[in-house]
Amino acid sequence: MSGYNAVSAKNTENAPNGNGLYSQSVAFSHYNNLSAQLPIEPETGKLVAGGIKEQAEQCFKNIKAIVDSIDHVMSDIVRITVFVKDIKDVDAVDEVYKTFFPTYVPARTTVAVAALPMDALVQIEALLSHGEGTIPNAPQAGDLIKLTNNTTNAPTSVLSTQTVAFSHYNYLSAQLPIDPKTGRLVVGGVKEQAAQSLKNIKAILESIDVPFDDIVKTTVFLKNLSDAEAVNEVYSTFFPDSAIARAVAYVPAMTTVEASALPMDALVQIEAVVSHGDGTPPQEIEDRHGIVIWANNTENAPLNSLSTQTVAFSHYNHLSAQLPLDPKTGEIVAGGIKEQAAQSLQNIKAIVESINHVMDDVVKVNIFLKNIEDIDAVNEVYTTFFPGGIPARRIVGVSALPKDALIQIDVVVSNAEGTPPKAK
Q1: What residues contact 7, with CB distance under 8 A and at least 6 apart?
Q2: Are 400 and 394 a contacting pair, CB within 8 Å?
Q3: Of 59, 157, 239, 315, which sits most exposed with the smallest number of CB within 10 A?
């Protein structure tokens, strides 16, 4: 699995530019990470005229322009994430969505958030397969197969595929607390809903013969952040799931986000990124079995018993969301948004350096802000950590963050050396 991978950042004039703060597309190994697209006309730099349908169409046009510019097609998209300002707009977004994905549908997450940049009504993000890879002349580069799967033991949707595997990762559609037999939300409160969401994830994984402990990263979307403790109580009964995982106390990386609303008025929705050791053909035989999941924590960043700071698998590291906590005290740092942004990024830097990487290896940054108006102040700090503006990026506004923080940031980091097969 070891070898050289180049981070390939690209931009096109046919989609909104990042003004030096981020790249439209960042490819590494077998994935392209796209920056979240707002409904901005690239010619004017302004929001497109019209309502939710026009805005959704512009977001998808921007994604398609980026995809076309790197010689890919929309069916290469593995996962779509839709952020709306008003959950009632989802049906209108879906009408537009169908025109861009008439046959194949990727894994998908839909969530309403408190605010979006430029007061947009919708923002859409895509993760793209990259069959050619970024290892020059690699034997596994080329026409890798994308594997899709649905099971009746979990909720199905004509708008999304339950799991899409490509190369060494499976990306699951976010799971709502729906009873697959009835198609309705389970009876009960947030604990029952959290358990059902996790049961649905487990059912999907069992349908593709993947153990639960192969989950690398989870994102928990909560209608009420005050429910986090109750959800964590349920979550801890699912992780670790096996004797091997319990022996090393393995838990995935984790991000918790408050949503302003979720589909079907659910209280919780959970998304999972899963390792896929057998890969997708034609992966080389020696790369197809038993690749190690490497979990790592450092005392130089905040520790959490429910999550691992960074989990590496194959050619990617997935980090848990970092709050602006002083790792020595466990408390929010003094000051305002600039100080908090700096601390969150400093915690990320400490984690990245603890695994012998550098900030230039970051390929994707996800920023959650209590006040969307803080973007400019955050950007001032952000450029000191990413002066080249290379990583792809997403920013959303949320109504609350853990510990009443003003900001929370998670990242995806390249892992050029990969993770090795298990020792025999």
Answers
A1: 26, 27, 28, 134, 360, 361, 363, 390, 414
A2: no
A3: 157
Last residue of a domain, one of 223, 253, 279: 279
For 367-398, write each residue's pLDDT tens digit.
999 999 999 999 999 999 999 999 999 999 99
- Dump pLDDT digits (tens) for 335-357: 999 999 999 999 999 999 999 99
Instruction: List Cβ neighbours of 302 (8 Å cut-off, separation of 6 or more).
Output: 322, 323, 325, 327, 330, 347
Are residues 364 and 258 part of one domain? no
Residues 6+ apart with CB under 8 A from 84: 52, 90, 93, 110, 111, 112, 113, 121, 122
**Is 177 within 8 Å of 190 (Cβ atoms)?**
no
At 277, list the tokens: 């050791």
Question: What residue numbers bound the domain in which 201 lies?
Answer: 145-279
Sign of CA dihedral 341, 27, 276, 194: positive
pLDDT tens-digit readout, 60-81:
999 999 999 999 999 999 999 9
Q: Is 259 helix (H, G, I), strand (E, B) or coil?
A: coil
Q: Residue 285: what pLDDT?
A: 60
| Helix 52-69 × helix 90-100 angle, to 10° | 30
Sign of CA dihedral 205, 210, 213, 214: negative
Q: Kindly state whether residues 108 and 59 are assigned to the same domain.
A: yes
What distance in Å separates the CA atoms of residue 142 and residue 282, rounded to the nearest whole number? Answer: 8
Using DSSP's 3-state secondary structure scheme, residue 207 falls into helix
Q: Which two tokens stand for residue 137?
A: 């002349």
Residues 117 and 156 in one domain: no
Q: What is the DSSP string of 307-374?
A: B-SEEEETTEEEEPPB-SB-TTT-SBPSSSHHHHHHHHHHHHHHHHHHTT--GGGEEEEEEEESSGGG
What is the CATH number for 108?
A: 3.30.1330.40
Domain boundary, last residue among 279, 306, 336: 279
- Would the pTM count as exceeding 0.90? yes
pLDDT digits (tens, 9 = 90+) for 78-114: 999 999 999 999 999 999 999 999 999 999 999 999 9
